[in-house]
Design goal:
Layout (H helix, E strand, L loop, with lengths): L5 E4 L12 H12 L6 H5 L6 H10 L1 H11 L5 H18 L10 H9 L4 E4 L5 H13 L21 H10 L7 E5 L2 H9 L3 E5 L10 H6 L2 H17 L4 E3 L5 H12 L3
Parallel strand pairs: 1-2, 1-3, 3-4, 4-5
Helix pairs in contact: 1-5, 3-5
């Protein structure tokens, strides 16, 4: 009988780094260095993609590309993307180790699922060298996975399915029906859908919400609920099969999926 055998976790904004702040801060600083202002909303919009692809998407935004043209009297080029990626990595590596704290509920929930034989893979928009900081930092705080795949060496990162497929190969999972992708960005959702696996979005702590724990706790309930509704809508429109407030709901989602799989 089919059942969920593997969960593919995202990292920042899903498993660690509540609110996904490490890359946002680095993007803002890197563009500011060349005189281009990027808003928080703009920086978050392509989140989840490989970081160099994320930078291309930022340059492609009319509001950002036009600033560059006005400053430098030419269009941006791939050389500018590469140079911006260098600047971004410099800022990111300077602070990345500070953003590896597991999101509340992640360790305990996954421990319970592991006890049922479910394996934990992962995908990310970070490179391998970035994950060489994040993985041991998170492990020191109690969070580990069975496999970590980065975009390095693959044809494409998110929203393409290659990282999920690589996890399946590495973990010996043959059936996409038994795999669940769990993430906090629209790119995560599209990655899961493109890989033809069950796809679950998470709202609280996500890049899409963009709030710290303290901001979420202080926010008037009506405003918080409105924001959660907007994130949920965007994720469902992107194709998510389920959207949860927190990972505490994931075991119930898996139970529901398993019931559906008994009918396949």
């Amino acid at each position: 009988m089919k059942r969920i055998d593997c969960i593919i976790m995202d990292w920042a904004g899903t498993a660690v780094d509540y609110g996904c702040f490490a890359p946002v801060a680095a993007f803002l600083k890197a563009f500011k260095e060349i005189g281009v202002d990027v808003t928080l909303e703009q920086a978050r919009r392509p989140m989840g993609m490989a970081k160099i692809d994320h930078i291309r998407e930022l340059f492609r935004m009319e509001e950002i590309g036009s600033q560059f043209v006005n400053l430098y009297h030419r269009d941006w080029t791939e050389d500018d993307v590469v140079e911006m990626n260098r600047k971004f990595e410099g800022y990111l590596f300077a602070s990345l180790s500070e953003y590896v704290t597991p999101i509340p509920g992640v360790i305990d929930t996954l421990a319970g699922l592991r006890a049922r034989g479910i394996r934990i893979g992962s995908t990310t928009g970070y490179t391998r060298t970035m994950m060489d900081v994040v993985v041991p930092g998170a492990a020191a705080k109690g969070y580990t996975v069975d496999n970590c795949v980065t975009p390095d060496g693959l044809p494409k990162g998110r929203p393409f399915p290659y990282m999920i497929q690589k996890n399946m190969d590495d973990l010996g999972i043959a059936d996409t029906d038994t795999v669940l992708k769990y993430g906090d960005t629209i790119a995560d959702i599209k990655e899961g859908i493109n890989a033809r696996v069950w796809t679950v979005g998470v709202v609280m702590g996500s890049n899409e919400m963009g709030l710290t724990q303290e901001e979420a706790a202080r926010m008037p309930l009506a405003e918080l609920e409105y924001r959660k509704t907007q994130v949920r809508r965007r994720m469902l429109e992107a194709g998510a099969h389920y959207v949860v407030d927190t990972i505490a709901e994931l075991p119930d989602v898996i139970a529901d999926i398993n019931k559906k799989l008994t009918k396949v």
